From TrEMBL:
It is found in: Cell membrane. Its main location: membrane. This is MDR family MFS transporter. Keywords: Cell membrane, Membrane, Transmembrane, Transmembrane helix, Transport. The chain crosses the membrane at residues 12-32, 52-70, 82-100, 106-132, 144-165, 171-191, 221-239, 259-278, 290-306, 312-335, 347-371, 377-394. It holds the Pfam family MFS_1. The keyword Repressor does not apply.
């Protein structure tokens, strides 16, 4: 088994390894400080929870909408230029975060950070599908990317705390440097690999945006999946925003250590258990894996709602349960999009998955308002109800069919009419 996995990993083209390794280093430096941004805004500008939530939400809403159009543009004009543009925006935005001393400067930098991520993520995921034809290898690469992202997330807070960097904005300069190195690696990778020619071959402009939107509207299964996953992301995003504010305002003991430890537990759980869980569930259908993940996610909301503020290890336990759900749901969501997407619209479909960021964007605002009006337990009971809504949405996909679509290049593309994605 190990030898077979090693052979599959060795077959990955250089561009795939650049995406994988770049995701690890950029996300590691990102997590040194980004989860502590709410603390920075509170200490530096003395903002309230609703104000911080509004800033965090507003910086991401436009980016969520932009991600779809970026994915479609990468189908039309190729991945290379879009990936380099996203790397450049990230480089500039994190550099601005490192030096900004005013609230408008912070808001601009955070908005650019969200835009850069929206520009970079869809073509990066679609590129893996472009250069790996084998479905099993492609799904392994998507899961490995998510694994490395969380490995970076596990190491980032530890390195930050150890070096005394957490909650210090100068650390954003390290993230900016990582994106500079990533941009240079992409320039080299596209120049040296034949995959660049394959991607360039799609730059023929035949995929019209109006036709693309028409196709997506007819894919009812995909539309329901997008709505369900937006809500899933909304629930999960409260860990990075609302939970931090809840703990900060409630005077949780050893706050920085607590938040860093929760981030570490989250990431290390995924690093250690993602592949064993995927191996354990390999014979289950995609929808069945998601249902199991949703049940575990609901259990985590109950634990967060009931955990006493002073119980340090209780927060660790709730985070562990949430992380189990994430280890199942998030890689499965990427595989799900890859299986639903027609080959010539892969960037568009991954771009449409950028709408997940709407859930991420609205969570800080909604969480901030609920925390100001009520308290943390009320927030988590509301999230438990949302878990039930998502469960129902996924159940409905079993009764939807996917139509035959005319291929946008004039050829027939006929996916299975059965909506089941296994």
């Amino acid at each position: 088994m190990r030898w077979r996995w090693w052979q599959r990993l060795r077959s990955f083209p250089p561009l795939v390894w650049i995406v994988l390794i770049g995701s690890f280093f950029s996300r590691g430096t990102y997590f040194m400080v980004w989860p502590f941004l709410a603390i920075l805004l509170f200490k530096k500008f003395e903002l309230g929870t609703a104000e911080i939530g509004l800033i965090l939400s507003a910086s991401a809403i436009g980016a969520a909408l932009l991600g779809f159009f970026v994915g479609a543009l990468s189908d039309r004009y190729g991945r290379r230029n879009i990936l380099l543009l996203g790397s450049a925006i990230n480089l500039f935005s994190f550099a601005l975060l490192a030096i900004s001393q005013t609230l408008p400067g912070f808001i601009l930098a955070m908005t650019l950070c969200s835009i850069g991520r929206a520009v970079w993520e869809p073509p990066a995921s679609a590129l893996i599908g472009d250069v790996i034809d084998n479905q099993a290898n492609r799904e392994l690469a998507l899961q490995l990317r998510y694994f490395l992202i969380n490995a970076g997330a596990a190491l980032g807070p530890i390195v930050g705390v150890w070096a005394g960097l957490s909650a210090q904005q100068s650390t954003f300069g390290l993230t900016s440097l990582s994106y500079l190195l990533l941009a240079l690696a992409f320039v080299w990778g596209f120049a040296k690999t034949e995959a660049g020619l394959r991607v360039k071959a799609r730059e023929d402009g035949t995929v019209a945006l109006s036709n693309t939107l028409s196709v997506l509207r007819k894919d009812h299964v995909f539309m329901v999946v997008i709505v369900a996953n937006i809500l899933t992301m909304f629930i999960y995003a409260h860990m990075d925003s609302s939970l931090v504010q809840y703990l900060t305002r409630s005077g949780a003991p050893r706050l920085i250590e607590l938040i860093s430890s929760m981030i570490f537990v989250n990431a290390i759980t995924i690093v250690l258990l993602q592949f064993p869980l995927m191996q354990l569930m390999r014979k289950l259908e995609i929808r069945e894996r998601i249902m199991i993940g949703l049940v575990i996610l609901a259990a985590a909301q109950v634990w967060f709602a009931l955990n006493p503020m002073y119980w340090f290890w209780g927060w660790m336990g709730a985070t562990f349960v949430l992380s189990l759900a994430e280890a199942i749901l998030f890689p499965t969501m990427s595989v799900q999009i890859d299986r639903l997407a027609p080959e010539h619209l892969r960037g568009t479909y991954f771009g449409a998955s950028s709408f997940y960021a709407l859930g991420w964007a609205l969570a800080p605002l909604a969480g901030g308002l609920i925390l100001e009006s009520w308290d943390g337990p009320v927030l988590y009971w509301c999230l438990l109800v949302l878990c039930g809504v998502i469960f129902v949405l996924y159940r409905t996909t079993a009764y939807l069919s996917r139509p035959q679509w005319p291929d946008l290049k004039g050829e027939a593309f006929a996916p299975e009419r059965d909506a089941k994605v296994t």
